[in-house]
Design brief:
Helix content: 55-70%
Oligomer: single chain
Strand content: 5-15%
Number of domains: 2
Strand order of the largest sheet: 1-2
Low-confidence stretches: none
Radius of gyration: 25 Å
Structural class: mainly alpha
Number of strands: 4
């Protein structure tokens, strides 16, 4: 599968295809733009992969680009993501998880809620034993 960007960096291609302000273009667009020569995809494997990407994105539009990449190309290695070049890691594209401080705050809140529910339950049990 030939891979071409010529003298343009991948980021420039993504930016020109409306990848501004955290709104990246679709994976199919990136794949097509980085693997064309004279406006045509080269090679049978490239055409098959492009059609596979289009099929997957139309059948499951809720998938993010990284989920679509992993579905069509398999699990990505730590240093490289297909269609994004070297330097972009899979963790850069996956949604970030809550920070430790947010998780601790949520834990404290649920512990307080559990404690109040236990005290209510103990009070109800004590009332039932009196009657």
């Amino acid at each position: 599968m030939p891979y071409r960007t010529g003298s343009k960096p991948l980021r420039q291609i993504i930016y020109k295809k409306r990848g501004k302000h955290g709104n990246p273009p679709s994976l199919a667009t990136i794949f097509f733009e980085t693997r064309t020569k004279g406006g045509q995809l080269e090679g049978d494997n490239t055409n098959k992969k492009y059609n596979e990407i289009l099929e997957a994105s139309q059948s499951q539009p809720e998938l993010s680009n990284i989920e679509l990449i992993e579905k069509c190309f398999g699990t990505q290695c730590r240093q490289h993501v297909v269609c994004y070049g070297v330097g972009v890691k899979p963790t850069d594209l996956k949604p970030s998880y809550s920070s430790r401080a947010e998780l601790n705050a949520k834990l404290c809140e649920t512990q307080k809620e559990n404690q109040s529910l236990r005290s209510r339950m103990d009070g109800m049990e004590a009332e039932l034993q009196k009657n």
